[in-house]
Write a structure and sequence with these properties.
This protein is of the alpha/beta class. 39% of the residues lie in helices and 18% in strands. The protein folds into two domains: 248 residues, Type I PLP-dependent aspartate aminotransferase-like (Major domain) (Aspartate Aminotransferase, domain 2, 3-Layer(aba) Sandwich), CATH 3.40.640; 85 residues, Alpha-Beta Complex (Aspartate Aminotransferase, domain 1). A hairpin with a 5-residue loop joins strand 8 and strand 9. Helix 2 packs antiparallel against helix 10 and helix 3 packs parallel to helix 10. The longest helix has 22 residues.
Amino acid sequence: METYQRLPLKVIKGNGCWIWDEKGKKYLDAIAGIATCSLGHSDRKLRKALIHQLKKIQHVSNLYQIPEQEALAEWLTKNSCADKVFFCNSGAEANEAAIKLARKHGRLKRGIEKPIILCAKSSFHGRTLAALSATGQLKYQKGFEPLLEGFEFFNFNDAKSFKNRFDSLEKNGPRIAAVLIEPVQGEGGIHLGNKDFFKLLNEICKKNQILLIFDEVQTGMGRTGHWWGYEYLNVEPDAFTIAKGLGGGHAIGALLVKEMANVLGKGDHASTFGGNPFACKAGITVAKEIEKRDLIQKSKLKGQQIEQSLNEIINLFPDHFRETRGIGLMRGLVIKDNSKLTAQLVVKEALKERLLVISAGEKVIRMVPPLTINDREIRLLIKKLKKTLQRIT
């Protein structure tokens, strides 16, 4: 089905930050499967662990105990604010689970008959119908109406907008079950959460027994220079979702919750493939390799290196670029509104320089390379991006 606007590149193999096409041409990958291949392509340790796992067992039902799942759940709870984990297959599925959690919590703890979840405009939470209904971008929703009811929106990082929406909904009694929000808006244009704003969210949610749920699908597993985006904000959510970087390129997602938010009981939710031995072996291997290689600290330093280089590009092309945004290895180069450049044009033209970048909206060029990217590869990334821009401007 023609649901993808594919670029003219047929990928046949990869290694680290590099991929090759069917003609043997080599490309520098600053996308990493959209912030997914944490250890890069075909990492030796991950490959070895998964070959070994395939020789043991690949999949069993969640009707039975799964040692690999228990090991990953133990690691995740030990290294986060969460106490419990539900495993699934993707970020959208994790957000679906979070929405169910929020609705049940709202009914049990606040006595709400028709719970409402507050979400931010310009957000992105996935392509399934509930996750799409929680997404604050009309372009993704158009044509799929009617959306699910029970979602209301406020402006990201805007205290006045949030308070106005909160007060209008709560004036006649409890209606809000949860706030679902990204610590950094990825698809919305690489917008960092404001610490004061998130502190306010936390205070209001705590005071009113409203769940604060973070969508960490893109920010989790070291992408921001912290294990989790909430660490940058100094605010602990009641629950958060992860996926992308967790499996290092293999399909896995998870909803993590604190004990006080753990209202889902036996039979409330399930997943056939979620948390199977193969996916969890990928997750625990990625987690431990990030630890062993000190990739959290390296993500922070490499991100600063990219930011400095992007600022140099802004100085070289002042008529076209406004600013650089981001944190860790989640970076965006913002095109001026009056420039004829678009992010998608840069993405297409960068292929000619054998560089893979991606857009985050119409005017933001996004770079989310593997956490393993090195200094030389960053210099090559910037060199190739400069050559692309020199040619098209």
